[in-house]
Amino acid sequence: MITTSAISTIREHVNAWRRKGETVAFVPTMGNLHRGHIALVDEAKKRADHVVVSIFVNPMQFSANEDLDNYPRTLAQDSEQLMVAGTEILFTPTPEIMYPKGLAQQTFVEVPDIGDQLCGASRPGHFRGVATIVTKLFNIVQPDIALFGRKDFQQLMIIKTMVEDLSMPIDVIGVETIREQSGLAMSSRNGYLTADEKYLAARLKQVLDNIIHAIQHGEAAQQAITKAERDLISAGFTPDYLQVRNANTLHQATAADTKLIVIAAAYLGKTRLIDNVLFSRHSN
User: Fold this and answer.
1) Percentage of the chain with pLDDT > 90?
2) Are 178 and 39 spatial neighbours (Cβ–Cβ below 8 Å)?
3) What are residue 265's phi and psi, to 5 degrees?
4) CA–CA distance, 125 with 61 (Å, rounded to integer)
5) Which pLDDT value is given to residue 253?
6) Roughly what angle, to the nearest 10 degrees, separates helices 126-141 and 7-19?
7) H or E element that contains 24
8) Helix, strand, coil percentages for the chain (3-state, nearest 5)
9) Residue partners of 159: CB distance under 8 A and separation at least 6
10) What DSSP character marks residue 256?
11) What SS3 class is residue 239?
């Protein structure tokens, strides 16, 4: 595995592959890797001749009161996992490489509407930072396909929208959420949880499943959500949002919508957890 922070090195290797007619898959990450990230690499290997992974903790997507400085950086362990998984190039740029003029002078990319709601409403500027860094990384790597986890479903939708709107020739693939045995969605931020909190955190997925069961058995969505919010609060969570949306658009679900997603963000202690589950209104 080649590890480099140089944009020119990435382009040199990708151009060589291109001249041979070979395809490139790309997995952008912020490091502190877990099995969910490795599942993206595994899927990338099935879909392309070569796999490039990036590790970059992106300062543009953190607000002033968030955990940029404390975000776990585990490059040695991450590199070992990626090498074992079959990654060919690991791109590890610095903020100075990605934002040479500083954040204040950086051209940015913003996806309207979908980027302003849910996590976008709770974390203003977050998705501007995501869209900007992903655009830069796409321009550097120029992949045929890029893979993202469905746990960050809103992020996935924003990147798909951005790629379509900006006519980027990249196929954006969403990969199924990888979960702990308890049902807790794997996340780099799970490392912030205490042992007791991690045990409680599995309740989030259970609550989402309860909402789906209620709706599929005829209960009104808002009634099911109200019950679920009470369950989360009684379990020790502080809900940020808990909603049922159209899974194709992320707009508010209507009675006519059949492909739905229940999507949530909630704090457990100081840790903000997100999760979602796709479902159809009528049970099979």
Assistant:
1) 94
2) yes
3) -135, 140
4) 7
5) 92
6) 50
7) strand 24-29
8) 45, 20, 35
9) 130, 131, 134, 146, 148, 172
10) T
11) strand
pLDDT digits (tens, 9 = 90+) for 70-119: 899 999 999 999 999 999 999 999 999 999 999 999 999 999 999 999 99
Q: Cα-atom radius of gyration of the chain, to the nearest Å?
A: 19
pLDDT-derived band at 261 (thresholds 50, 70, 90) equals very high
In whole angstroms, how far apart are CA 76 and each of 2, 26, 30, 31, 187?
Answer: 14, 20, 14, 10, 18
Which residue do the tokens 């595994």 mark?
A: 42
Tens of pLDDT, residues 245-256: 999 999 999 989
pLDDT exceeds cutoff 70 at 17: yes
Question: What pLDDT does residue 283 have?
Answer: 54
pLDDT digits (tens, 9 = 90+) for 218-247: 999 999 999 999 999 999 999 999 999 999
Q: H or E element: which one contains 223?
A: helix 221-234
Q: How many helices (H) and strands (E) does the chain have?
A: 10, 9
The residues annotated with a catalytic role in the active site are: 37
pTM to 2 decimals?
A: 0.96
Q: What integer pLDDT is reported at residue 67 of this predicted model?
A: 76
Could you give the CA distance from residue 278 to residue 17 in angstroms, rounded to a whole number?
37
Report whether 269 contacts 194 (CB < 8 A): yes
Cα distances (Å, whole numbers) of residue 250 to 115, 131, 147, 151, 277: 10, 17, 20, 14, 13
Pairing of strands 145-149, 171-175: parallel
> Are 36 and 151 within 8 A, CB to CB?
yes
Round to whole Å and give the CA distance between 44 and 52.
Answer: 9
CA–CA distance, 80 with 190 (Å, rounded to integer): 21
Phi, psi at residue 231, to the nearest 5°? -60, -45
